[in-house]
Design brief:
The chain is mainly alpha-helical and 1022 residues long. It has 50 helices and ten strands. The protein has a five-stranded parallel β-sheet, sandwiched between helices. A three-stranded antiparallel β-sheet has the order 8-10-9. The chain has a two-stranded antiparallel ribbon with strand order 3-4. α31 runs parallel beside α33, α34 runs antiparallel to α35 and α43 runs antiparallel to α44.
Amino acid sequence: MLSSVETRSVSPVFVGRAGELSVLTDALIRAAGDGTTGCGEPQALLVGGEAGVGKTRLIEELWTEARRRDAVVAVGGCVEIGADGLPFAPFSTALRTLRRLMPEEMATAAAGHEQELARLLPELGEYPRGERSGDEDGELARLFELTTRLLERVAAERTVVLVLEDLHWADASTRHLITYLTRTLRRGRLVFIATYRSDDVHRRHPLRPFLAELDRTRTVQRIELARFTRGEVHRQLVGILAAEPAPDMVDNVFDRSDGNAFFVEELARSLVADDPCGLPDSLRDILLVRVEALPESAQRAARVLAEGGSTVEYGLLLAVTGLPEDHLIEALRAGVEANILQPSPDGDGYRFRHSLAREAVSDDLLPPERSRLNRRYAQALEADPALVRDDERAMRLASYWYHAHDPAKALPAVLGASVEARRRRAYSEQLRLLERAMELWDNAPSEVRAELRPLDYAEAYPARGCDPETPLRFLDLMAEATTAGRLSRERERALQIAKRGQRLALAEQDPLSAAWFAVQRSRLVSVLGRGDGWAELAEAKEVVRGLPPSPVHAQVLAEAAAWYRIHTPGPESLAIAERAVEYARMVGDENTELAARLSLGGLLVEAGHVEQGLAEMYAVKERSLALNLSSLISSSHVNLPHALEGVGRSQESVDVLLEGLEVSASHELVGTEAWVLGNLADSYFVLGRWDDVKEVAERSLTVAQSPKPRAWAATGLALLDLGRGDTASAARRLREAREHFGTKDPTPQSTVSLDMIEVAIAAAQGRIADARAEFTRVTADGFPTGTQRYAWPLLRIAATLEGDTRGLPAAEEGRAEVLDRIAALARTLPAAVPMWVAYDRWVRVELRRARGEDRPEDWAEAGEAFEQVNHPYALALVRHRWAESLLSTDRARAAELLRQAQEAAVRLGARPLVQDNALLAQRARIPLEPERNAAPGEAEGCAAADPSPGSAFGLTPREKDVLRLVATGRSNRQIAETLFISPKTASVHVSNILAKLNVSGRGEAAAVAHRLRLFPLEETGV
């Protein structure tokens, strides 16, 4: 099974590396499962080290162990052509090997997805080569997800070791796919290993941030190979020489090699050959001396091979060297026997035994020699395209012509390679090629440029509404490069290109192009956190003002409508959305039409046209599914549930969200899951499924690929912590949410939701002044349209705080103004759906309680309203106050309500409400569990319990005295003076009280005392 894997090492002895090999072997065991770990789990490892330090030899030892364990090994190397890497090359090679070794398993795993997977492995079929779908974000994610699932299925029954070598040469698309794999592989007997040269990874090398990102995932093990010690060099020399070396020879080799294993081998070879030139000072000199010792024909073949790439096919080598075939065979034989060259693993070509040798030979070539060799490679490929694989041809031809310094030939070749990269979803390579084309543009003859057509090379072009029969322009390359940069997540580069493109379009008096670039800038600025994108959209709107309808015009309006819906919903945004739909229909752009209709539906809901708006959003969802438009499928399964939750239809929201999770999995919508889970956490909180809230919100944090879904997940967890009484954790989650949201793109919904939690935390911690100040600040300008989902709870929290602190001297100043503000704000909020009607009644009765004017019928009205909606926590809170208001008139009904509230609180784990209910029951001598006889003094209880203040918390009489003074704001020293105890004793009592009340500070303890009315008002100094 592993017989096709070649051995590259000279030394027959494996020296050192016992610890590193043990790590790799352990990973192999964990992936395979050892009887106690079931079927095993995927493992990912990175092996780094300087060139020649022994990475390949270490991996070869693992191959031997894998063969012993009946594992399948597939190796793929990152292919370098000049300074270029082929897109997805290591994956293509490794998958090709798996297909050869496991044909049935690969066919079964790829079934139904052959066309898409053919972008990585062309042997599976012909991948789509039609026009751009308009949904490239979703298609790239789908390719990555399909690749992950393919590997999981192939490795379901048999251990697979997938090795990608020379990651320092990897193209960006390969790096992105590796990142995705390491994050999402969840099952399968798979060991994924990648090797790279650490000495090549300089400060600006693209591998450096990639490695840092993998480190942050904590799913990848890093192995860094150090150089050999003197003892290890001694053992290596023994293996190479098959004899004991003299001590001075060991010292000499160790000093010169500095412990580099490959250098040791080459030095040993020079010593054994008794080189008359003496021992060279550098590895490069050693390698060149060895090449120069070859026959002239072999040297010629080596020079040609060095410039052709990391591996060159035999037929191509024959064509470029110009040697008779017999002479070439003899030349290659001489190189192989000298351990300088070796056949490629598939036997179809040749390569240098070590890349350092190739680099030494290539660096020794003169610039004219390099240009001439690259030209000959390009000419040979043009004369016989079958000399290389179909999936490599365009890229290699482009690279050869570019390095031949022939702009006339290079420009069309580079553009052709960019199209191939785009079709394979290798957008990073497409961007690099397009930037190379822009570099070549001015140097290419005008007659060559005149023959180029937009539709051949720039699919972003038609979206700007230009004539496809006109010659390709530099502006078209900039548009295509902007799109490639956005799709490849090279957003900084894309933003710079878009800025230049917009300036150039305006200079050329091309308003549609200018508007198109402005829209791209808006998107990029927002994603990069540089701003909210409105300034750029405003520029686009201004540019297209007065122009006839076009796809660009429709896109500008649709983007503006989406922006308004999120940032400033209102009549103007509704009109823009309607116009965007109209323009998109006029120009036949259904993608833009559906996007605009989705925004329109959301705006209609927020404007009070609930059923009309929801119907529009449902229609967009179904149409997007029918057309398989990934980005719209994603946004409709996020925006529609958000709108449903916004009008209190939580269960309906959950139904759509669960469908969204299924669709995300079936359509491989990578970025959608985190958003769906965040929305699901919100709906589960309202529905009282609090344990599920924690599960889905934490999962959202894990799978999120951008800051905003992480922010919403943290917000949901903060609300859960508040409900369960953990204010310290809620405050931490709130800080995390603010960090994730950032400050450059605030939206009304995120701002009001965070401010609501801020006020709630301050209130729960007894920081009355802070809570009021924050409430006053955030409501200074009223509530933006469409924020009632968060505004009503905020008003309720503020009103409840005033009710809880009624009669507290420290809370009297400014109290009337706050109550008036709450009442005035409540009058401005819509209450057009049952949920907001219920909140309206709750806020009004809390305001009456704050003035001491609430009546049982007021609470009954609020309670009955909440009984019509599915919000168990809110209903339990209202029932608690409803029960309290009935104690003097209807104890039986009060007991029933209190028990219902307690049952819900216990089920939710709402600790503060459990305590409130228990204390109220104790004070009123109402048994919360009438079906059994409670023991005397039981905390959550019943008539027999001690009704004195604090008994429900197990406070001693002295601790009750201390808490009474804490509630008035006294310090430890003041408490000590009042109770004739030492400050240290007072501090001990306060610590015990905080622990028994399960609160984090004195303010929170005071808040509990006031909220629960533990002491009559006169006892706290009123």
